[in-house]
């Protein structure tokens, strides 16, 4: 389903000569091994992630100005503006290697290479990190701002022994490291009465009458059954069919009450349901390549993989959209269902963030997992377009063919 399109990308990738950044590379942390999840068939990839903001009349088909004005500078930035590109150093199916990192930005074609050790910043705990690219304000308006990062990943297929995962029990208390994934946050509301009722009633006798794995599956099936239609695709595209952002319902009306919404709205509702019954859960905002766009480049799309945490097992993935494709909405589910725990094509999916916008940053043109910090910036929305582009090149197979997945968020 999710194929890597890398045949002609190596030349473009090696235009960048990665810098060594040992001063920013953390020491290896001992990682607890899962008893129920196994990584296999590792693939090494060099990843190039490009984010650009540019002005074009194509963004405004109703434009009535001079026909020669095909490009317009819509971005006016103050001094000290920054763009933050999120990255995740480890998930149950992916390890990201930042011992080599190349980070660059270009202002109207004038490119600057950043000192990689300064660009890469990592959270004090957990697996989240940012590549921060400062924009020197040499002028007030720009036609194009382009940021690029290059790094390495190793991704695996992930196999979950569901019978073993189902033997995990409810803990007396959760580790403090997962407290954040039980609380309310942007787009996720475990206190929503309709969501909470759905999740609690999905298991006869209540969620605590069964193991947390079974309670999670019941709750997610309960949400997906009420989701009668997906409104639009996963991603929003620009005039040239390049990825622009995350697709949300155009009228803002979605959820269990109306039985519809976009893929990301389904994902956050499922996560809200699990948090409402006391299970740590989160959305993993991911990218993948799928075919080509009209520019002849690989077509980048968003994918929303959800996870919930089990003691001694780790972060168990599920994909509500795949579960819908397996007929969850129309048939009774009393056992395993594809897309829950065992998810298709994870090894082709690049995890980048746990938030729709990095903490402390704001969206620019669209909500798209990355963000910027630019107080006083102005954007002419009639002409502004943002574009995300994922470019991957295979680098062979990993040396260790199989290993247990990590249990928690201890980063490599």
Largest sheet: 7 strands, antiparallel
Structural class: mainly beta
Number of β-strand runs: 22
Radius of gyration: 21 Å
The count of helical stretches stands at 7
Q: Poorly predicted ranges (pLDDT <50, ≥5 residues)?
A: 1-29
Oligomerization state of this entry? single chain
Count of the separate structural domains: 2
The percent range for helix content is: 10-25%
Mean pLDDT: 85
Shape: globular
Order of helices and strands: HEEEEEEHEEEEHHHEEEEHEEEHEEEEE
Amount of beta strand: 35-45%
**Straight-line distance between termini:** 29 Å
Structure described in brief:
By secondary structure, the protein is mainly beta.
What are its keywords?
2 domains, C8orf32 fold, 37% strand, disordered N terminus, 412 residues, globular, 22 strands, single chain, seven-stranded antiparallel sheet, 7 helices, four-stranded antiparallel sheet, mainly beta
């Amino acid at each position: 389903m999710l194929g890597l399109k890398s045949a002609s990308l190596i030349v473009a990738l090696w235009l960048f000569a990665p810098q060594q950044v040992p001063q920013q590379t953390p020491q290896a942390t001992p990682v607890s091994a899962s008893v129920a999840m196994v990584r296999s068939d590792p693939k090494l990839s060099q990843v190039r992630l490009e984010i650009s903001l540019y002005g074009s009349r194509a963004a405004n088909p109703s434009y009535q100005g001079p026909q020669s004005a095909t490009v317009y500078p819509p971005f006016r930035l103050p001094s000290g503006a920054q763009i933050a590109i999120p990255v995740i150093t480890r998930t149950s199916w992916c390890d990201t290697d930042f011992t080599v990192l190349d980070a660059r930005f270009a202002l109207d074609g004038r490119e600057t290479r950043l000192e990689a050790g300064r660009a890469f910043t990592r959270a004090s705990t957990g697996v989240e990190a940012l590549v921060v690219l400062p924009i020197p304000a040499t002028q007030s308006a720009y036609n194009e701002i382009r940021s690029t990062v290059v790094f390495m990943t190793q991704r695996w297929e992930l196999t979950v022994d569901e019978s073993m995962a189902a033997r995990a029990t409810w803990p007396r208390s959760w580790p403090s490291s997962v407290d954040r994934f039980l609380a309310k946050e942007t787009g996720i509301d475990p206190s929503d009465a309709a969501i909470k009722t759905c999740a609690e009633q999905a298991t006869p006798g209540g969620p605590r009458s069964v193991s947390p794995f079974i309670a999670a599956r019941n709750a997610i099936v309960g949400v997906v059954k009420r989701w009668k239609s997906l409104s639009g695709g996963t991603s929003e595209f620009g005039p040239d069919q390049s990825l622009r952002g995350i697709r949300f319902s155009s009228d803002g009306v979605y959820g269990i009450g109306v039985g519809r919404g976009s893929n990301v709205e389904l994902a956050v509702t499922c996560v809200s349901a699990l948090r409402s019954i006391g299970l740590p859960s989160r959305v993993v905002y991911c990218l993948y390549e799928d075919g080509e766009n009209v520019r002849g480049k690989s077509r980048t799309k968003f994918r929303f993989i959800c996870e919930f945490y089990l003691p001694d097992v780790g972060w168990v993935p599920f994909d509500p959209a795949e579960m819908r494709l397996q007929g969850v909405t129309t048939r009774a589910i009393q056992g395993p269902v594809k897309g829950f725990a065992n998810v298709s094509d994870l090894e082709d999916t690049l995890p980048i963030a746990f938030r729709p916008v990095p903490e402390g940053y704001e969206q620019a043109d669209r909500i798209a997992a990355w963000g910027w910090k630019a107080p006083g910036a102005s954007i002419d929305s009639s002409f502004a377009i943002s574009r995300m582009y994922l470019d991957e090149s295979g680098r062979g197979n990993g040396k260790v063919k199989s290993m247990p997945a990590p249990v928690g968020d201890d980063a490599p």
